[in-house]
Inverse folding.
């Protein structure tokens, strides 16, 4: 059974979202497109929250979000417990977000990344495992800041 990946974008990420959906399908993932479904102006939080909720509740292990800078989506998604949404614009940053931070939501800055780089960044994020070890303690401190 293919892993289901929920994906969402606002108007700024709409066009690139289509390319990411295609790439995910080619890679064998089941894609749940949570919108937006046009280039009409929208609010990023309307798409960040449903994707983050799916990850928060365990309905999905990972999700993908896109907006102009990636920042708005990451702010909204990171309000959800157990969600670690990372803005990444290179494969190296995406890999480190997985290795060191166990990022479970990838946020792509659609206005600042080419389609080719976005797909390479996505692949790096999908293929890189969490290292655990000393990083496990650090991720636990994200979840429970009072333990710091």
């Amino acid at each position: 059974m293919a892993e289901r990946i929920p994906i969402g974008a606002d108007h700024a990420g709409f066009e690139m979202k289509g390319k990411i959906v295609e790439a995910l399908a080619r890679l064998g993932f089941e894609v749940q497109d949570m919108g937006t479904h046009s280039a009409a102006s929208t609010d990023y939080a309307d798409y960040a929250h449903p994707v983050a909720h799916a990850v928060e509740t365990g309905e999905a292990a990972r999700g993908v979000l896109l907006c102009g800078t990636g920042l708005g989506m990451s702010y909204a998604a990171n309000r959800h417990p157990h969600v670690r949404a990372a803005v990444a614009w290179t494969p190296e940053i995406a890999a480190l977000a997985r290795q060191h931070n166990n990022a479970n939501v990838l946020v792509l800055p659609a206005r600042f990344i080419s389609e080719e780089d976005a797909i390479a960044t996505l692949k790096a994020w999908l293929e890189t495992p969490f290292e655990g070890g000393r990083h496990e303690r650090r991720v636990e401190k994200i979840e429970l800041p009072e333990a710091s």
The chain has one domain: 4-147. Helices lie at 14-26, 45-56, 71-77, 91-101, 115-127, 134-143. The beta strands are 4-9, 30-33, 63-67, 85-87, 105-109. The first strand starts at residue 4 and ends at 9.
